[in-house]
Please model this.
Amino acid sequence: MAGVVIVGGGQAAASLSTQLRAAGYEGPVTIFCEEPHPPYQRPPLSKAYLLGDMDREQLFLLPQAQYEREDITVRLSVRVDTIDRAAKTVHFGDAHMGYDHLVLATGAYPRRLPESIGGALKGVQTVRTLADIDAMGPQMQPGRHLVIVGGGYIGLEAAAVAKKLGLHVTLLEAAPRILQRVAAPETADYIRNLHTSHSVRILENMSLVRLTDKAGAVSGVLLGSGDCLKADLVIVGIGVTPAAELAAAAGLDVENGIAVNAFGQTSDPSIWAVGDCASFPLQDGRIRLESVGNAIDHAKRIAVTIAGTPAPYIPKPWFWSDQYDLKLQIAGLNTGYDDVVTRDEDTAGVSFWYFAGDRLLAVDAMNNGRAFMVGRRIIEMGKTVAKQLVSDTSVDLKELLASAH
Model:
């Protein structure tokens, strides 16, 4: 038996390997990690780890002893170059390995600024890997000037950490407002106000012309307005691209990531894709979810299917973001919303409830774990709730849940 080969070293790979064993799979399981580290958590990298509140060993998802106990082989610093679908083998360097099932957990990689405008200068960083943060850490010194390119959650989280470390921070967003693709104006306004209260300068609807340099290191950011910002360090947070090149080269279907069916199979039934790199069917289209929750849940569904109990993946999306003392928790997907209802519970925090017509789609909860849990429960039950009850804070959240229909 050739067993299961997993290509990738993130949350999805680690979760899949242990879930295979939990589901009773007894064949060989091998994980190929391109990085020199076993699978590790990514969310704490730019927060607790960068702040020095978490040691490197705490990042690792599983102790080495567990891999050994569950007979899971982890191969570090190995890049899988090609897939031979006919021979059912993966090739790396001068070696190869056969598989019964191949799972692509290749994740995604950050988009970068073009080299032609200074994207390759020293001091220009992305936020994705342990190596990224290790390179960034020594540069995050009090009093230095940081420019963040991109007003999504990655950029905003980086701004919050940088302010805690004592840097001067300016955040650039090319769109008319921060979080334009992922959140309502109400959520964007709340978070913008939070950052400006911490002296972060936010420039929206602002284009970047190029980065300036001194002796090969970034020294400034030239804006479309003609202004030039001082920059000792630039962090680029302009989204990610699914790592689908290996799949595409093997002739697998690629559509905003590696296209899989409801069970996680690619266009080759012996090859699967999981996590950030995979796009799967949802309602009348396809979607790709970049979250820890998706990586874990998707991996579990694929594991039980490989182990002999086929089960389609039905996503229950949830996300979070930590910025300063704010814990933002998001339930559901707001795609297609046409109304946002605000529930302001004073000391309990505020939440924004997204509706399409009368149907509840998603909830953004600011320091309000109860609103998040109630909204998530209603959404996952496939129910909705009356808008007037959501906005009426004299109606307890338990009553709100009980009224769901």
Summary: The first helix runs from residue 11 to 22. The mean pLDDT is 96. The radius of gyration is 22 Å.
